Amino acid sequence: xxxxxxxxxxxxxxxxDAAKLYLKRHLAKVDTETDPQVLPDLLxxxxxxxxxxxxxxxxDVSSGKEGFYWLDQILKLDPSxxxxxxxxxxxxxxxxxxxxxxxxxxxxxxxxxxxxxxxxLSSMKLRASRLESEKLRSWQKQVSADMDYHYQAIIGQxxxxxxxxxxxxxVARTDANxxxxxxxxxxxxxxxxxxxxxxxxxxAVFVNVDLGALSENLFxxxxxxxxKGAFTDAKxxxxxxxxxxxxGSIFLDxxxxxxxxxxxxxxxxxxxxNVVRVGSNKTIPVDVRQIFATNMDLYQMVxxxxxxxxLLYRINTIEIHVPPLRERVEDIPLxxxxxxxxxxxxxxxxxxxLSEPALKRMQKYPWPGNVRELQHVMERxxxxxxxxxxxxxxxxxxxxxxxxxxxxxxxxxxxxxxxLEHVEKxxxxxxxxxxxxxxxxxxxxxxxxxxxxYRRMEKYDL
Length: 462
Ligand SMILES: Nc1ncnc2c1ncn2[C@@H]1O[C@H](COP(=O)(O)OP(=O)(O)OP(=O)(O)O)[C@@H](O)[C@H]1O
Fold this sequence. Notes:
By secondary structure, the chain is an alpha/beta fold. Helices cover 48% and strands 15% of the residues.
């Protein structure tokens, strides 16, 4: 006996009895109904694998009108429903029309039992694969939503950020290629996602590809797909990222890391808007909005002949420059506050704020890892601390870099002013530099406790 729940609807009781008698021998559950009006209630309470539906419910009428009406109702109630129509002999034309309207198959009355069973079984398979793809679709939607959740808010009110929001708003509406340039951790992916979310493709997928992580071998099969047997590990046909992204957007990150031969392959797909899976010669059209990003100087690379000029001109229709964090110092308190709130919630801490000196220290630091680094500093500080306020010494930022950024000479110290406090400040700076920002070692050499060194660092705004 096979699993399977079948519903048969026909106003002819003899037809229902015959169908039930035979199908019951092979399937777990066979329900029958004479009145299609009960369909909405039935479908609300039960999920049928196959619904066998008569075309004509009023005797002597053979227009099939009612059949079409109920077919439509069933598909509205359950878009994955599999409906097999029961037609009278000679109604084949009507049945073909019904298939165009969404029916899966049809059986002609009076039927041959074996043929009926074969039709029901193949329809059950179709139902199983429809349910599976529906599950995958909703799973994919959920995963995308979860991913996107972490990339929702773009924080920053500095002039360059306001300008950036305006650009995102303008380009999102178009399908133009966008090249996002900026240092690591400045938020390039965040911006790419914002463009997608504000575009007409927002309901479709956003596919993210880190080109820097793709080897020469994997590049083609990852991006364009492959067919079974194309190479040793190709156990089945697989679509590439471009095909998966079709209808939506693709974000090709680290575009500057592609070898010249990979650049040529990518360019040809961008030009033709078609992909060919590895091992096949069939061209598959793709409709994808393309967004690119890199932290490398592509113009310099063109000069050095390590990046194709024609590829650069194809991808840079719109260019977005994301400024490093050190050039928008006024955003640092906003970002710090934002991440503080996030991590306080995540790690269930009572920390409420950052002290003024802590903020000052953050604003002096050059943030070579940009927002990502700031995010990590805040996460670490929240994990490692209790209390209500984070102090400057609670932030594990690399003090040494702060001095280097201020253009301090590493070795010699020229003291031009012998005011004692000034001398003390200069000496503390020098020793901190010597120990690469390690407060413990610097305090030991200066003959101070860590606390009193911290107190002085705060006093001198270090
Ligand atoms: N303006 C911002 N507001 C809030 N979070 C931000 C902002 N900029 C960056 N972030 C966060 O910083 C982290 C790094 O951002 P993202 O991955 O977008 O940077 P990226 O420039 O693509 O980095 P990479 O070049 O290393 O790939 C992410 O967690 C992101 O959410």
